[in-house]
Amino acid sequence: MLAVEWTRALVASAPNAAVPALLLGGGALALTAWGWPAGTLGLGRSRLGLRVLGGLALAIVLLLPAAARVTSVPILPPALAAAAIAVSIGEEIAFRGALFSALEDAAGGPVAVIGSTALWTAAHALSHPAEFLPAVAAAGLLFGLWRLLCRDLVGPIIGHVIADLAL
What we know:
Blueprint: H1 2-12, H2 18-30, H3 38-41, H4 48-67, H5 78-107, H6 109-123, H7 133-150, H8 154-166
Helix pairs in contact: 1-2, 1-6, 2-5, 4-8, 5-6, 5-8, 6-7
């Protein structure tokens, strides 16, 4: 997962490579969950309405600090928006889906929350400025706790997608 994220970050820095790198990186990350049952990943269909509502609440929590500072709302070009959606979904499936499930099976919920948060933060080390990494870690911790306590990945996916589109 780290190799995919770091490769994506390095390739995205080349001219005209950001959108393809994000799309391919998101797809590659989603493939890390290949073979895992949807329910184990937190992707079951039960209580879907509440899970979607939870995702919207997570997005609001993530965006409140930024909303206080925003004077105008940037509009992403459609290709970049699609790429942001792809990488957000891929990251959640990989880090809070497959990795979280593997760590939880091996060592329990707290290790899954801490481990998935730490690796997700490390995965962003090449694509984000160092001063932004504490915010990445905080978001990862929030998503990891949600995943553990609600047994849900839909909420973190929705929250992550909205946050990436807005930021």
